[in-house]
Amino acid sequence: MQGGGGDPFVKFRPHEDLHIDFTPMIDSMFLLLMFNIMIFAITGTQQIQVPEAAYSKGAETHEAILFSIREPSVPGGEATIYEGEVLEDKKVTPDEVRQIVEKAVSEGRKKILIKAERKVPYKTVLEVAGALSSIDDGTLLLAVQQPR
Amino acid sequence: MAKWDVMRGRDLKQILGVEEAVVIKSIQQGKIGPEDLLRREGAAEWKKVSELRDWLFMSPTQRWEEEARRRDGAAESPGQPSDDSGGSARRAARRVPVSAHADEEEEFEPPRRNMDVEEFDLTPMVDMTFLLNMFFMLTTSYVLLRSIDVPAPNLSQSKDAQASRQQMQSLDDLRDDFIIAEIRPDNAILIDEKEVARKDLLEALKARMRESGKNELIVQAADEAYHEVVVAVLDAGNEAGMQRVRLATSAEEGP
């Protein structure tokens, strides 16, 4: 008998145990997938085409009171204001904007971030920004994106 | 219990499907000689009894240990032939006679390394993961939201509106200290009453700063002006190096 006492009728082929371990790759793919899903959920709600500006800084979205403004569907029409991101049930009027800001200011937040579309009339932006008029050190942040 | 095919060496007579216990007993009794041939039932290759004798007389546990040892040895030094003489000695030392305990040991089936394990086929899941990743990579736009800071305009809506209005100044009062950028309802831009094309805005602001020595900007936009034009003027002011950029508002006529 050759090569020890193994089953002589079963030919031992060492290369049978050699294989590429795909586990780390699959793990990485899952991590990447989770990252993509989370990023997609965050950016998926961003339907506002904000103006471009070269001199800007990262928006402090967590500190500011966010309002989104969509441009009118017809020229000369009224722009729509939303509290937070653009969601149908988040539409607000300028009076409601003022109430929201007053409540937020009482909680210590004194910044308004306005995410307005490019063709929003300046009047509407001022209506939202005007909620800060009564606040001494209120800051207005206009959302922009880097030029492409 | 495994079955074996037996072929007598002298006349090549075959007996098929013999129980292993019978084969072992026949070898012990000399009915099957060392020159006779054996193969697993249905296998293609025949081997001499003399080659298989050690294997046949091992208990299942010993066979499994030997198999594992042989595999480990091959994995550590696959190119080196195993030392059969030492192995035979060890096997002889471990060898136990086939006894009444044999059946008991037969029932014991240690876990085999090479046993066929039913594995989940992960290929479709990995394919789907790749496809989903590609979808998200292609469709997600990683746009970082940025902002420009502007002092909040005073719209004279405070409780003290009257006082606020009294503090307001007209643009003409401010022209001495500020560069005034006006945006008309048709989105035309005027820098200190001189119309400027949007693409020339930066250069016009820089030139005006050099000419006038002023470095503060006030942006006065019409209600109908587009937000993007206002932002363009604010951005140009920042880029030109204005120390302060402010938004002007029109005073409402009060009672």
Query: How would you state the average pLDDT of chain A, rounded?
Result: 79
- Low-pLDDT parts of chain A are 1-5
Main β sheet profile of chain A: 5 strands, mixed
Task: Describe the main β-sheet of chain B briefly.
Answer: 5 strands, mixed
Give the largest chain-chain interface (CB within 8 Å): A-B, 66 and 74 residues
* Strand adjacency order, main sheet of chain A: 4-3-2-5-6
Beta strand count of chain A: 6
Overall spatial form of chain B: rod-shaped
Q: Taking Cα atoms only, what radius of gyration of chain A do you get, to the nearest Å? A: 28 Å
pLDDT < 50 stretches of chain B? 77-102, 157-161
Distance from N terminus to C terminus of chain A (CA atoms, Å) equals 76 Å
Strand order of the largest sheet of chain B: 8-7-6-9-10
What structural class results from the helix and strand content of chain A? Answer: alpha/beta
Helical residue percent of chain A? 25-40%
- What is the helix tally of chain B? 10
Distance between the termini of chain B: 110 Å
Question: Radius of gyration of chain B in whole Å, from Cα?
Answer: 48 Å
Relative helix content of chain B: 40-55%
Describe this structure in words.
The complex is a heterodimer of chains A (148) and B (255). Chain A is 28% helix and 18% strand. Chain A has helices at 23-43, 94-106, 122-129; strands at 57-58, 65-70, 80-83, 91-92, 111-116, 139-144. The termini of chain A are far apart. Mean pLDDT of chain A is 79; it is low at 1-5. With 255 residues, chain B is of the alpha+beta class. Helix content of chain B is 42%, strand content 18%. Chain B is rod-shaped. The relative contact order of chain B is 0.08. Strand 1 of chain A pairs antiparallel with strand 5 of chain B.
